[in-house]
Every structure is written in structure tokens, then in C-alpha cells.
Amino acid sequence: MLRIGILNSKGGVGKSLIAQNLAVRGLKDFGRVALVDADPQQGSVGWSALRGERDDGLVVSKADGEVSAALEALEADGVELALVDGPPGFLNLTEEAIAAVDFVCVPMKASVADIKAGEYCVSACIDFGTPYLIVVNEAATERRVTEAVETLRDLGQPVAQTIVKRRVGLTDASNAGKAASEIGRAGVQSAEEIDRLYLEVITAARASAQGGRNG
Predict the structure, then answer these.
(1) Distances (CA, A) of 113 to 91, 110, 119, 123
(2) What is the pTM of this model?
(3) 213 vs 215: CA distance, rounded Å
(4) pLDDT value at position 214?
(5) What is the rounded CA–CA span in Å between residue 73 and residue 4?
(6) Is residue 139 pLDDT above 80, yes or no?
(7) d(Cα 177, Cα 23) in Å, to the nearest integer?
(8) Using CA atoms, how far apart are residues 139 and 159, in angstroms rounded to an integer?
(9) 115, 105, 126: which is closest to 7 by C-alpha?
(10) Higher pLDDT, 182 or 215
(11) What does the alpha-carbon distance between residue 105 and residue 194 come to, in Å, rounded to a whole number?
(12) Strand (E) or helix (H) holding 34
């Protein structure tokens, strides 16, 4: 089973939106996909309740106890791809998730403050030897995006080519218990961005899982 964390120690960076959309996109390639909600606020569990019962192979569950134990149980149940929607601010839970996954996607908004606030998660990934990729999320202006990406790359950080822009489609989809790809024309542009991001993340995660952890 491939294990990917959508993690950042800072809240409000769009972890749940990205996790939900990547999970739905993963159904095209994996028979069973799990979205593990490790956030005490349980936003993805609430999203799943809005989604209702569907026989599409997506399992959404909260992480009762350790994230690693939840992932092991899902793997034993035949899940092929698991995404962990991480908590904001709960540093011990974020570290636990980082230690339990093969790869981490770190969403960040395009601002100096967000880059600074995300340093803890990045440092923890390095300490645990868990490969990671920073994703510039909720991008509003091209100038700020360019500055953020240049700053991160100057710091030697791996940054996704795909920029996830601030669009109404993503929020509207989540509020309806759906992914952007499931709401028709309003979500087309967001769905295209998610598709490109998914391919980047899955390719990097598979390479990391095959090659073993760093360090």
C-alpha cells in the first residue's frame, strides 16, 4: 500500500481540500483508496458524511489512536492507496503521521509567513527521512506565486510544478461532499490542476517507496 501524508504544522493551508481531491482522483488508478482523517476537527470525516454512501472504493475514516496502526489495518483490508489528512498545529500528531507514511505533500500558501510557518513540517520530514514535496496552494496572484516558488527553490526545497490556484470550484465541491472533478463545468479548471498534481505526487511517492527512505 502506498502511504501519502497531506501535512503541514500550519492550519488554513488547504490540506483537507487537497487530500479529498487527490483521494477521489486516486480511484481512477487504485481499486481501493483510503482517506485517513488525523485532524481532531475531522473535516474530511464531515466531508464524507455529506458525500453519503457510495460504492466507489473510497474509504474515509478517522485515525483512532496511532496513524501507523490505522494504516496497517487499512492495508490488511486491501486498501492500495492511503492519504492522511493531517492536523493543524498538533505537532506530535504531525510528526506521528510523517513517521508513518512513505511520502509527504506539504501544502503552503504563497507568502513569506506561510513559508516560515511550514518550516517545522519540512524539518520533521528531514529528521524522519521521509521524502516530501511542497505544493503552492490557494495561489491568488502570479507575482506572489513566482516569489514564493523562487524563495523555496533558493532554499533548496522541492516544489511541485503544479500550482493549485484559489478557485470557487474547489470550495463548492468540498461543501457538497464532492471533489472538483465531480461538479461539472464549475470544477473543470481545479480538476485539471488536481490531476496534474496527483501525477506529480504519485510518481514521486512511488519512486520513494521503491527506493526506500532517505537518510
Answers:
(1) 18, 9, 10, 16
(2) 0.93
(3) 7
(4) 52
(5) 16
(6) no
(7) 12
(8) 14
(9) 105
(10) 182
(11) 13
(12) strand 33-37
As for how many domains the chain has, the answer is: 1
- What pLDDT score was predicted for residue 30? 96
What distance in Å separates the CA atoms of residue 19 and residue 108, rounded to the nearest whole number?
14
Residues of 1-11 as b/e, b for ≥16 C-beta within 10 angstroms? bbbbbbbbbbe
Q: Domain for residue 198, yes or no? A: yes
The pLDDT assigned to 215 comes to 44
Answer yes or no: is pLDDT of 197 > 90: yes
CATH of the domain at 133: 3.40.50.300
* Cα dihedral sign, 165-169-172-174: negative
Angle (CA) 121-124-130 rounded to 5° is 105
Query: What confidence tens digit (pLDDT) does each residue in 38-83 have?
Result: 998 899 999 999 998 888 899 999 987 789 999 999 999 999 999 9
- Measured distance CA(36)–CA(180) in Å, rounded: 19
Query: What H or E segment, with its residue span, contains residue 70?
Result: helix 67-76
CA angle 137/198/107 to nearest 5° reads: 25
For residue 212, the one-letter residue type is: G
Q: Which amino acid is at 96?
A: E
- Determine the structural domain holding residue 156 and report its residue range: 2-209
pLDDT digits (tens, 9 = 90+) for 71-110: 999 999 999 999 999 988 778 899 999 999 999 999 998 8
Residue 180 lies in a domain: yes
